[in-house]
Amino acid sequence: MPTYPSDVAFTPTVKAIQTRKGSRDAYARMEASRGWQTEVTDDLATFIADQRSFFLATVSSDGAPYIQHRGGPPGFLKAIGPRTLAFADFKGNRQYISQGNLADNPKAHLFLIDYVNRRRIKIWGEARVVEDDPELLAKLMPEGYRARPEQVIVFDVGAWDVNCPQHIPQRFEAEDVARELAQRDERIAELEEKLAATSQAH
Predict the structure, then answer these.
(1) What is the spatial distance between Cα 69 and Cα 37, in angstroms, rounded to a whole number?
(2) Separation of alpha carbons 142 and 119, rounded Å
(3) pTM of the prediction?
(4) Which of 87, 125, 147, 154 has the most CB within a 10 Å radius?
(5) Would strands 53-59 and 77-81 be described as parallel, antiparallel, or unpaired?
(6) SS3 state at 34
(7) What is the distance between the alpha carbons of residues 1 and 159, in angstroms, rounded to a whole number?
(8) Cα–Cα dist 124/56, whole Å
(9) Distance of CA 17 to CAs 11, 12, 26, 199, Å?
(10) Tens digits of per-residue pLDDT, 123-157?
(11) Helices assigned H by DSSP within the chain
């Protein structure tokens, strides 16, 4: 059994490299005090509810890694328990690599990145595919979203950590930019009307 939640990533080899490169003492203090989280906090649930996409990493039976993008409207990835996340898995290219990997090896990883606020969260755990629970699938399907749900992926959280914002480029969603531009254009139109009215009065 691991001593600390971060042991899921900080293997003995990783810790040896940290020691050699001078960062082990700082991480040892982190482990001894706060450490990584193991449950879905309110802050994590809020962060997850705002995300439109994330990356799911799995590993095949012979150790080949695979990373797949998952996208949908904000809130399509949901916290359904203190240590459980889930989402409706939409029909795609029907390769089923992630599903096959999870059948052989349940260990999985979620990587979520918020480009607007330059924040990223890493979540380690185990995942499973649920194909025979229409009630759960309906509960997780985003309302009004035009996609064909096929199954559910349930993710049991083992540990999670927040990365520093260093080197994350700041990017904005197209619809957010369009909304801001529309508000700007409305304000410009209002000011032009006021200016025209003032000019006519003089």
Answers:
(1) 24
(2) 24
(3) 0.82
(4) 87
(5) unpaired
(6) coil
(7) 14
(8) 10
(9) 10, 9, 13, 72
(10) 999 999 999 999 999 999 999 898 999 999 999 99
(11) 12-21, 24-32, 42-50, 97-104, 134-140, 174-201
